[in-house]
Amino acid sequence: MYAALWRVLPGPAWVRVLILLLLVAAVLTACVLWVFPWVETLVTPQEVTVGTEP
Amino acid sequence: MLGELLVTAGVLVLAFIGWQLWLNDLIVGNQAQEEAIAISQEWQKTAGGPVAVAEAERPDPGDPVVMSAPGNAEVFGTLIVPRFGSDWAWPLAGGVGLEDVLNVRRIGHYDGTQMPGEVGNMVLAAHRTGWGSPFIDANKLQLGDSIYIETADGWYEYVVRSHEYVTPEGVGVLDPVPQMPGMSPVDRILTLTTCNPLHSVSERLIVYAVYETWYPRSGGAPAEIAGIVQAAG
To answer: What percentage of chain A's residues is helix, strand, coil (to nearest 5)?
Structure first.
C-alpha cells in the first residue's frame, strides 16, 4: 500500500518525503478536529451525575 | 497490504489515546481556564475595588449574599480549587446536561439544589476523564482544602470535609442534608459529584465541603487565590 503510494508520488525523493509529511499532518489534523471528538462520544463513559435530573 | 493497514490502524488508536489522555485535556483545560478568568475579569472590571487585601484587615462579611438560580447552561460563576493547580479555574453553569454543559467546558450545577452561600446543599457535577477532565483529581482533595466559588457578588469559601462513594442511583447526596431525606438544613454544604473509578461509570465519587466564609467583591479576593484574580487584572 505504502510502496504503491511512494511510486505514484512525483519528483525526487525529498519532494516525496515532503508530500508524505504533509499528508500525515493533514490526516492527524482531521483526526484531532473531527474524528477523535466523535469517537470519544462513543467509547468514553460520560455519565457523571447521580440519578436522573433531580 | 493487510499488515500495513493494521499497523496504520494501531498508530491511529495510539494517537487517539494520546490525544484523549493528554493533549485534549491540556487544550480543553486551558480553554476552560481562560474562559473562567475572562468571566472573573469582567466582574472585577464592573465592580472595581481592590484585587486583594491582607486577611487581618478584613471586616466580618456577615451572612453571604445568595444569588437567584441560573437558567439552563447559563454561566453564573467559576470554581477555583487550589489543590487542582495554582491557576486552576473552570466556569460554572446551570444544569448538568451533557451536550449543553458538561461536554462544553462547564461544571454543572444540579437544578433545584442550593446556590453558593445558601443554607442547604449546593451540588455540582463534572467529568472525571475526558472533556478536559476537570475532576480527575477529585480523589486527591484533602481534609481542610479550600474550594472557592466566584460569582458576581464575590468569593465563597468551602472547606473539604469528606469523600463518599455511591452507586449511580445514589441521589441521597442531593438532599439538603446529604443522605438525610426530609431533614431541614442548618449548614451550608457544597457537594461535588463525578464518576469513579477512573475511565469507568460504575460508581460515583462524592466530595463534601462545608461553608467557611465569604469574601464580598468590594473587599477583594482571598489571599490564597489572589494570584488567579491578579492574572485576570
So the answer is: 70, 0, 30
Catalytic residue among B127, B128, B188, B217: B127
3-state secondary structure of B120: strand
Give this prediction's pTM: 0.86
Residues B222/B158, Cβ–Cβ less than 8 Å: no
pLDDT in tens, B99-141: 899 999 999 999 999 999 999 999 999 999 888 999 999 999 9
Cβ-based contacts of A40 with chain B (< 8 Å):
20, 130-131
What's the grid cell of residue B69? 438560580
Q: For strands B120-125 and B154-166, give the pairing.
A: unpaired
Interface confidence (ipTM) of the complex: 0.82
| Residue A34, min C-alpha distance to chain B (Å) | 12
Contact B150, B77 (CB under 8 A): yes
Closest residue in A to B169 (Cα) is A51
- In chain A, the largest separation of any two C-alpha atoms, in whole Å, equals 65
Residues with Cβ within 8 Å of residue B186, at least 6 apart in sequence: B119
Radius of gyration of chain B (CA): 19
Handedness of CA A21, A24, A28, A33 (dihedral sign): positive
**Sign of the torsion formed by the C-alpha atoms of B181, A50, B93 and B192:** positive
- CA gap A47, A44 in Å, rounded: 9
Tell me whether residue B127 is one of the annotated catalytic residues: yes
Residues 6+ apart with CB under 8 A from A47: B168, B195, B201
Of A1, A44, A45, nearest to B4 by CB-CB distance is A1
Instruction: Give chain B positions within 8 Å (CB) of A47.
Output: 168, 195, 201
| C-alpha cell belonging to residue B103 | 461536554
